[in-house]
Amino acid sequence: MAKTQAKVATVDPVWSQICDEAHAAVRDEPLLGALIHAGLLHHPTLERALAFRFSLKLASGEMSEQILREIADEAYSTDPDLGQAARADLVAVYDRDPACHRFIQPILFFKGYQALQSYRIAHWLWRAGRTDMSYFVQMRTSEMFGVDIHPAARIGRGVMIDHAHSIVIGETAVVGDNVSMLHSVTLGGTGKEEQDRHPKIGNGVLIGAGAKVLGNIHVGDNSRIAAGSVVLSDVPRCKTVAGVPAKIVGEAGCAHPSVSMDQQLRGCDCEG
């Protein structure tokens, strides 16, 4: 009985689906066989595959693949939450992005997902007191993916960063679980203050493309920030804000805006 329970505990349906998709992709596009085998099928777990991807993408003349691979393997082996967060992020992209049809796509091709997993390793380094190495990972993530997340920022699980170009998240920012944001979002400060100076984003929030959320303000759970808005004050939960500066223009429109991804402002005060 104990052996059966142990075997069940090691079943990983996410990784199993990834492997099935990878085999199908090699069959359908043999020219990608080497890439898919090296990046996915050669590895026994999702964590090992992500560590390989991390080291491959972030290596440079200043830091070898081998060193980065050792860092990532250590991170995933000592902190199981990293692997669980990676799975939650992967499912979030698959569920919310209409351009994502398979689990292998974010791992191999989507820079938002890859940048987020790189941030998670940088944050692990930061919490371990290895600040200089965490800054190196931040720098290389920004250079490689165009996503600049301070390693001290705190980001929950089930996060989707769609397209991801020009994302900036500051040092004292907090992002809750199940948040979705599009490209060119900034979670920034408003001046040179050195203490708690960045936004706190609640669970289930949807942040539209180009939105800027600035200062030590709170965005309530399950709210929506319209594309191009500049948010300078607190946002109550379950509301939609839009404009420059952003104002409340209506309700969020549904219980889980980050999942529905509905960015239309139907029924809002600004409609038309």
From TrEMBL:
GO terms for cellular component: cytoplasm. Pfam families: Hexapep, SATase_N. It catalyses: L-serine + acetyl-CoA = O-acetyl-L-serine + CoA. Residues 14-118 form the Serine acetyltransferase N-terminal domain. InterPro entries: Hexapep, Hexapep_transf_CS, LbH_SAT, Ser_AcTrfase_N, Ser_AcTrfase_N_sf, Ser_O-AcTrfase, Serine_acetyltransferase, Trimer_LpxA-like_sf. One of its GO terms (molecular function) is serine O-acetyltransferase activity. Keywords: Acyltransferase, Amino-acid biosynthesis, Repeat, Transferase. It comes from the Bacteria. GO terms for biological process: cysteine biosynthetic process from serine. It is an enzyme of class 2 (transferase). Pathway: Amino-acid biosynthesis; L-cysteine biosynthesis; L-cysteine from L-serine: step 1/2. Its EC number is 2.3.1.30. Belongs to the transferase hexapeptide repeat family. This is Serine acetyltransferase. It comes from Rhodobacter maris.
